[in-house]
Structures are given as structure tokens and as C-alpha cells.
Amino acid sequence: MTRKTILDIQKMKAQGEKIVLLTAYDATSARVAEAAEIPVILVGDTLGMVIQGHSSTIPVTLDQMIYHCAIVARVTQTSLIVGDMPFMTASISAEDTLRQAARLMQEGGVTAVKLEGGEPVAPIIKRLTQAGIPVMAHIGLTPQSVNQFGGFKVQGRQLEDARQLVRDAEAVQAAGAFAVVLELVPAPLAGLITQRLSIPTIGIGAGPDCDGQVQVFHDILGLFDQFLPRHAKRYAEIGEAMRAAAVQYRQDVQAGVFPTAEQAFSMSEQVLRHLKEALDHANR
Ligand code: KIV
């Protein structure tokens, strides 16, 4: 079994085959994603929200990303694994970004990194790709800049913003990104960008005309109960099923109906008798 490569993903755009990405952060979610034949698993820094309980992705550190990437890489064989570069990793210097991306690949075992930002980070994308680090770009609403945007808002609705998004998309492609995530971008603009680019566009809240889609594991499975983003669709109510199971477990223990003999382990009558005799003797 071999892992998918960035060339496989680019071939999918050329052949008009939709590209499906799903986030995963641990062994269970990664195994579920791969069993579902998801070609690309993103270890996203959304783990800051759905795993760590923060209200944004900003607190997530590189060491935490490496920890989660290594788990996902360890238990998967065929999906391409992309690891998110966390907050500020593309903001200090190209050398700093190179070092951090190298750690994500060497210690986290990912095949590619994802970096938020458009035209301004294009020179950094170029340095990474020249160093042999495949980069998935991420433009539109870039969650690490949520405070700059003043909230999780759709981007590119006004003419100048839309023109900038087109420039961002073209700049990251020219810099060597192998794909670009478009987050919270109006569907017609995402469609236009998709037509203009030769690399695949991956939408999240960017309509149906992107080359692929990415969703957060916890959103599509109903595991994240804080809110459901408008761009997400719940394919199951696993969170509800988990809560019901936990309640049933508590009630069973309290009622004395769990565990039964089926979940218990026996021992030899003789050993038990000898133990009791020895204890009685010791107590005399
Ligand atoms: O961190 C993440 O999971 C992401 C996707 C939602 C695109 O960046």
C-alpha cells in the first residue's frame, strides 16, 4: 500500500475528479477517515477548538501540531497527510518557517504542510517548495487572523477584496503551492478562481465549484456541540449517541446491572479457598 502523493491530487483536478479532504487529529479519527477512503487527511489546527476547547486556533503550538500529526501519520497508510503550520509560523522569517515546516515533516511525519496567507506569504511558500516541502496554501478567511478580520466572516464580497483574493490565489500558485484552500469565499468567486488556476482549489464554505472540499471531522459527525458552522453538514449525530451511551452506562452501574459475569473474570475455586484460609489464619 502506498500513500497518495501531491501529484495524485493534482491529477484528480486534471481528470475532473472531486478531491475530498477531512480533518483528523488522533488515531481513531484518522482510522475512520482512511477507512472511508478519504484521499487527503488534514491535521488542522482546528484541533485547538475541537480537541483543546479554545475559541480559536491561535493558541495551538508547533509541538502540539507535531504530536497530533505523528499520531495520524503512524496509523495511516494510504491517505496523503497534510499538517497545519500554526499561528505565526510564517510571520517571523523564512528561515524560521523552514525550520518549523521541517520539524512538521521529520517529527510529525506529514507529506505536506498547510500555510495560511496569500500574496504576502508567497515568497515563503517559494522557499519551502524550493526546499522540497510541499505546501497547501490557505486564503480567504484565514482563521489564525480572525482577530484582524473581526470574526469568522465571508471574504471577497467587495470588488477590491475579490480582486485581492484572485491575486492571492495566483501568487500562491506561482510560488509553487500544490493546492489552495478557499475558506468562506462567495461561491461565484471561488468558481472563478478555480477556473483560473491550474492547481486544485479546496473549498470550505466556498460553494460547489471548487475542485475539492474540506470539512472538520467533528462538524460532519455531530461531535462538536458549541456551534455548527453554516458551511458544514452533519452526516451523523455521533455526539448525541455518545452522550446517550454515557448516560446508559452510568444508569447501569448505579442499578447494579453492569458489569455482569460476561464482563468479569473467574479464578480457580481452589486458589480462592486457599487465599481465604490464609487470610483467616493471619487474622487469628
Ligand atoms: O485547521 C483546519 O482544520 C483547517 C480547515 C478547516 C481548512 O484549516
Span between termini: 66 Å
What's the count of strands? Answer: 8
Q: Which small-molecule ligands are present, each listed once?
A: 3-methyl-2-oxobutanoic acid
Total DSSP helices: 12
Would you tell me the structural class of the helices and strands? alpha/beta
Mean pLDDT: 96
Q: What would you say the CATH architecture of the largest domain is?
A: Alpha-Beta Barrel
CATH T-level topology of the largest domain: TIM Barrel
CATH superfamily of the largest domain: Phosphoenolpyruvate-binding domains
Number of domains: 2
C-alpha Rg (nearest Å): 24 Å
Work out the strand percent: 5-15%
Written description of the protein model:
- This protein has 2 domains: 6-236, Phosphoenolpyruvate-binding domains (TIM Barrel, Alpha-Beta Barrel); 242-282, no CATH class.
- It is built from 12 helices and 8 strands.
- The protein is α/β, with parallel strands linked by helices and 284 residues long.
